[in-house]
Amino acid sequence: MGCRGARGRRAAGARGADRVTGGCLCQGVRFELEPPLRPVRVCHCSLCRRSGTLAGAYTAVPTAALILISDETLTWYVDENERERGFCGRCGATLFWAARGRETISVSAGALDGATELTIEQHIYVEDAADWESPST
After folding, report:
1. Using CA atoms, how far apart are residues 135 and 25, in angstroms rounded to an integer?
2. Which residue segment(s) compose the domain that 81 sits in?
3. What CATH number should be reported for the domain holding residue 81?
């Protein structure tokens, strides 16, 4: 990943007030995102479903705009489609995914702190939704 890691981050005084923060349930992973954030896409593919949710809801930023503040429990898994999925190895929270070769990283919208003013832009892979689900389009 091309994000700035916890050990190489900028000095605290350099952080902008407009940055969006987020993290996992146990706080083992904390991060900041430099705006702008892409509107949310809700993914109904089987890989997102198997990551522990009905569907994955992700915003995205350029990879360099993800600043890891704490990554002590961050674990990466490479799935069958060569996408890297970042999650907390302690609490299991799904946090990131990135397709190799892209210059953006998707960030779980549910992992963001507080109000973000994000909106849902699109539902994707609706045709792959579980048979018991009725996703909006």
Report:
1. 26
2. 6-128
3. 2.170.150.70
